[in-house]
Every structure is written in structure tokens, then in C-alpha cells.
Amino acid sequence: MSTAVHDHPHGHDDHAHHPSGLARYLTTTNHKDIGTMYLWFSFAMFLTGGVMALVIRAELFQPGLQVVNPDFFNQMTTLHGLIMVFGAIMPAFVGFANWQIPMMIGAPDMAFPRLNNWSFWLLPPAALLLVTSLFVPGGAAAAGWTLYPPLTVQMGMGMDLAIFAVHILGMSSILGSINIITTLLNMRAPGMTLMKMPLFCWTWLITAYLLLAAMPVLAGAVTMILTDRHFGTHFFNPAGGGDPVLFQHIFWFFGHPEVYIIAIPAFGVISQVIPAFSRKPLFGYTSMVYATASIAILSFIVWAHHMYTTGMPVQAQLFFMYATSLIAVPTGVKVFNWVATMWKGSLSFETPMLFAIGFLFLFTIGGFTGLVLAIVPIDIQLHDTYYVVAHFHYVMVAGALFAAFAGVYFWIPKWTGRMYDETLGKWHFWLSFIFFNMAFFVQHFLGLAGMPRRIPDYALQFADFNMVSSIGAFGFGLAQLLFLYVVVKCIRSGEQAPAKAWEGADTLEWTHLPSPAPYHSFETPPMVK
Amino acid sequence: MSQRSHNRSTLTRLAIFAVAMFGFGFALVPFYRAICEVTGLNNFIKPDAPLNTQVDTSRWITVELDANTRGLPWSFAPRQRSVRVHPGQLVQVVYEVRNDSASPIAGQAIPSYGPRIAAGYFRKMECFCFQKQELAPGEVRQMPVVFVVDPELPKDVATVTLSYTFFELNGATPKPAGNGVSG
What's the complex ipTM? Predict the structure, then answer.
């Protein structure tokens, strides 16, 4: 979108009055500091969850049990899922929201700066609970990140720590969402109507509502597990008339919107990056807004497509199959709009654009495999196989994570005032792209051939593809250390970046603020026409 | 309205929404039970309606009886290991349970079926699993199960296993079974 703006950049001095060192970060209420902390926190969690993924792939490198015992393997799959979803991907996009939303709508800060500080500082204790749960008697939760009873009702205290961690992470997300919605609704610069907001802001407005509707339901579900475990209730315990399948319904009522909580901000980042490097406004801005909102609304009526094998009546299976397939329509609108934005554009292929195009290719593959899994008779065959694992890693890694990389490379000149090393950035992209496909593409074949997920051993005929997948996973993991190097090098010794680092970027942070963005920006709101 | 109070009122409304959604998660529990009740899904511990049908004497079904306990010191076994029945025939079998401990205990039996598909064709008119069982120390109880196997049972199923597992209901101070909300 293009916003015609008619006043001049404010020459803000960096007149920050804030404590230095650790105290600065503990007490800061500045959206940029908090955004930075979110991003570093999520990167640390990304590496933690990544190491767990490599433990899994090391065990699966060859058939048989070589590296870890099965119980520890289960703890790894569980913690890898929880940490990546709640610790890495979600906080990363909240970090983007913190940095970008006030700058993109011309607001001086978030609506509730102190609440913002608290939203962030809830995260480290939750992460600590998850990681330390590995060292308590009985080990960490080992029932899978979906926390299905009856396993979750039976496990040791590691499970309680995981439940508390989910509570705290949920609380953080809810507070962050309230902050984001209030900022977007009440603090836009004069003249910036809702339909003039950059699409990234729109996607976050919708995501924040999704979070607000879904996270409390998850909090309720894990609370029920907790009371089943310790306070004699029987929500899910069949002995007292409870039903484990009920948990699956409640969990996926949260869980499917959660998929879009992760994907929709990624759509937002991509919708900023592709127009900037195509040097064209985003194609179909209005339809993008409506498509995103439709995806969000539909996400609440499709949850049971994760549960086709629980013995649902055929009518319910049909309903959830059709509703799920319907989501392909707004998603298709988005993908075609991105392609149409690139059509006849003056394309250039800097690292953010490479990641955005990589996203476009691989996310579409992930979307299609999702459509395959939505079909009941096929899903009954593929349920809980590596086909599902391949599908959601195409959506979560090549979708959300690639979009996050695109966003970091795109905005890091504005954040740090310095340019990253373009050659190394491109290396990071190509290594990530190749090794990602090496790790996950073959998993489609494994799943189609019937290899079940979450099992540390497998039949001999799966050996070759698993070896390829493990090599790809280790390559992908190592490539992320290169990303760390690129970012650190950029912060320390990158070349000075101009205020408008990208020729085609046209949102307020590029047109109205110097690079790096001053500590306090838009104290006087810009006029947007 | 000033920016500050404007923000505050937005915050209040959003917070109320979040709390309401927390409640909604719990509201799904009775909602789920109501759906199961209306549609007749998951109807394991309620009596089935009597089946008015012909006895299919041309067919024999072997019903194997199984009994387990989980986490409570009871001896629990059927009086006979299996019965041969015609589909449509009203059959009574008897289970026996004894409390081996020195304290009164309440338990709840949960039935399950093998093969799974048989569950929909196995109709129990009377069963000890419809209510909780409280046993005094050393008490022995004979408990009947009255059932009919629906003649609609697929032809390739010749053996049905009826398996009960007794679970303890919170020691000697049991709470009502069958409604997980307060149970």
C-alpha cells in the first residue's frame, strides 16, 4: 500500500534518559528495547529447540536405538514442539510487532508500555520452567506438545512444570495482544484510517484477536489437566466419567487458530517485503485484509480435522473436511496477490526478497499438503505419520520462520542503522533453503510409506530417507549459526544504512525516520493523507 | 475522551473478552456432554434402550468376558470366561468383585469392547457400570450384566470381547460418577 505523507522527517535526537546495562532491560518500557528483547529471546529459544530437534534427528539417523533412550526421545519431541511454538516463533513475531507497529502507524510507543515490559518478562521464567523440567525426577513432559490425556494425567512433575509454563506463556500472549489491539485501534497517526494501515499491522490486529480468543481456551484445557492430576476432578479421566477425547476438542479449538496465529503475522511480513522488492504497491490490498480476516474466522470451525481418527460420526467428518477445504480459498487469494504483486515488477533479489520467495514456494507446498490431509479418507491413512510432520514443518519453518528471517533482513537496517553483509545473507538463505528441503521433503515419502511420528526407532526400509533427513537437519541447524554471525557482524561493523534503506519501501518508518530509528520516535504524530 | 482513558476502556473490554474465553473453555465440557447425549455418541455407562428384534438363531456369537482393576485392591472376575449367544437374544452374565482391603472403597467400572466396531452393536440393559460401586472391607458382590447383541452386527464379527476395568473413585469419600464437571 502507499501512504501519501506530507510532512517532513522529524530530526529527533536520541535524548534517551534510561539506565544502562541490565537495569535498562529489566525496567524498560520502550517498545524498541522490548522488541529487541523479544527477538533475542526467541532466537535463544530457537537454538534450544533446535538442539532438541537435532537430538531427535541424531537418534533417527539410523534404525535402532543408538543415541538416547525412548523416554528421553519423547521428552525431546515434546519440548521441541512446545519451545518452538511458544518460545521461538510466537515471541519472534511479537518482537516484530513491538518494533514495527508504533513506527508503522506513527505512534510514539505501545499503548501500555509497562504492561509491555511485563508481557516480555513473563517469558524467561516460563522458558526456565520448560528447560529445568528436564532435570526433575521422571524427566520432562513426554506426551507430545499436544498434551493429550491420558498420558498427561499420568506423568511426573515435569508435566506440572510444562503446564505452568503454558499458563505463563499464555498470559504473556494475552497481555501482548491487548496491548497490540489497543495500540492499533487508538493510536494511529491522524489520517491513517484502518484501511490505510500497512498490511503487517492488519495481520497483527487479526492475530491479536485470535490470540485473545484462543489462548484462554488453552489455559482452561491445561488447568483441567492440572485439576485432574491433583485435585480429583475427572474432566478427562474415564474412571470418573471423563473423556480424553474431550481434551482433544478443547485443545484443537485453541490449536487450529494457533496455526494461524503463527502464520498470519508471517503473511504480514511477506506483504511488506514483496512490494518493496517488486517496487510496486501490494496487489489487492483490500482483498488481502478480507482474506486474512476470513482465514481467522474459518480457523475456529475446523478444529476437528486434527481428530478424524477419534471415531467421529461421518457427518461431522464431512463438515470439518469441507470447512477445512474452504480455507484454501482465502489462502489462495493471498498467494495469488503476492504473485500478482511481483508480476511485471522491477524485481531485485536481496536476502529479504529471497526469503520471501522461498516462503512463497515452500509455504504453498505446505498449504497443499494441508489440503491433502484435510481429506478424510487420506488423513485416516496418513494420520500421525511423517507426512504430517513434513506438512507442518513446511508451514512452520519454511512459512513462519522464513518470513521471520525475511523480516529481520528487511528491517535490521532500520533497527541498527547498519546494513548486513549481503553475500553472507544470501549464503544463509541458500543453505537454509537447500538443507530445509533435504530435511523435510523426504519426510513426505516416509509418511506416505507409513512411518509413524514420535517413535525413536523405525523399520529398515525407512533407513535411507531418514539418513538424508538427518543430514539436512544438521545442515539447516548449522546454517542458523551463520545467521547469528550475520546479525552480530551487522550490529558491530555493518556499513551505515540510509534512512530509506530499500528503494521500494514506503511505510512511515522508512519515509519519516532516520536509521537507526531514534529511541523515541513520532512523539508528534505525522500527518497521513 | 483522552487517549489514556480511551486506551483504558479498550483494555477493559479486551480483558473481559479474554476472561470470557477462559470460561468458554470450561463451557465446552457440558456442551460436549450434551452433544454426546443428544447424538448418542460415547454412551458407555448408561442403559441402552431395549431392542425389539428377532433372535437370529442361524448365527452364533462368542462373547468373551474380561475383568481388570486399576489402582484399587479388589479381586474382580466374571463367573464364566465366555458365553455363546445368538444375536437378538437377551443374555445375563454375572461378575463377582471382592474388596480385599481393610477400608471401604468406591470404584467405577468402565466397559470397552473388542473389536472396536462391536461397541455400537452391544446393548446393555442392566450393568453394574451404570453406577459407582461401594464395597465395605471384605465385602463380596455378585453383579449382573444384561445385554443383547444387535443382529445388525457385521457378519465377519464372530467374537466380541467385553472388558471392564474398575477404577478407584477418590478413596473412601467418592464423588458422583458420570459428570466429570464436579466428579
Answer: 0.89
